[in-house]
Specification:
119 residues; mainly alpha; 50% helix; elongated; DUF742 domain-containing protein; DUF742
Amino acid sequence: MSAPDEGSLVRSYVITGGRAKPSRADIDVITLIKATPSNEPLHRLNREKRAIVELCRGGALMTVAEAAGYLNLSVALTKVLVADLVDEQLLTTRTAPTSTPATDRTLLEEVLNGLRARL
C-alpha cells in the first residue's frame, strides 16, 4: 500500500478549514442523508459541498459512505462536509436503523447457506 498523496492531505485540510471531525456527533458513515427541498443557489458552496448536495437531490436516501464513494472523497472529509451542510439546512439526516443481534445472526446464516449452495 502506498502512502497518501501529500497534496490530497493538504487539500482536505483546506476544504474542511482544518477540522478533522464533524461539528455534529450524530454524523457517522452509515448516517442516511438527503437534500432538503430547496431552490437555493449553490454557487456560494465549494465544489465538494455542491457535489454532495447535487448528488443527494435525486430524492433517495444514501449513506455518508456511499456519497464519499460516488464523489471519490475520503469518508472523514465527507463527514465534516455533511455536518456543515446539515448545519446550513441543505441536508437532512436520519440514523440508519440498527438491527438486533438475533437478526444479524439470521442474516449471516442465510448468506452462509446461500454461499454453500453455490459451491
